[in-house]
Predict the structure.
Amino acid sequence: MKRSRLVTYSTYLKIPHLLSLQEPRTKARDEMLFICVHQAFEIWFRLSIFELEKARAAIDADRLSAAVHALRRVTTILRTATPAFEVIETMHPYDFLEFRAKLEPASGFQSIQFREMEFLSGRKDRRYLTVLEASGRRALKRRLAEPTLWDAYVALLKRHRLRVGSDAEILKTAVQIMERPDRHPLWDITEALFVYDQGFLQWRMRHVQMTMRMIGEKAGTGRTGAKALVGAGYDPLGQAGGVAYLKTTLAKVFFPLLWEAQTQLTRP
């Protein structure tokens, strides 16, 4: 009888395979750093998607404590991943130029999982379906057909007999919830959604800062896809530069009505 192979740390986590995936295209010293950090981002994105799907399902099932837990976990993931930009910044911008040209046309713009997180959270942009590779288009088409976290939240409000017939009504409802911290039954889930959105925005802001340091106003490596996305009238990664495009993403919050509710809050 054959003895079953014992599970070890290495076999369980498939460490040999994992460590075989870093394949620099040049002999530049810092390309390995660049690859490792971005692969780590993708691992965090994968876990985030898993947790966001759990949060959406929990909201649909009125298991709000589970939904809050999943959202807080994603927020913690973002807070953990965001400082990795500091690791990239240990690379001198001059040294980045040693291998940067070899990346074209690859770009973080093309991260399918990042776009899935956007679609799943509530920002669906069909134009990505025209500029990403086939596997990415399939994934985003699936996300496009799915309800978002925001859809699940609005349905939750409706089940609680709160007014959600228009954006104005949803905004008023959100304000009423936020004005009763720790007292309204939907305050925790509302706050968890907002804090998650805030964490994602902080990730975007830190990304912009890192890019400003590394390439200044140079064109991004993914300029072709980005130009197709925004249209011929504005080339954010061409003449305007990569940072100019990334700055436009800072307005891409997932739950704008929750942000507007902060403005509407008052105290007697």
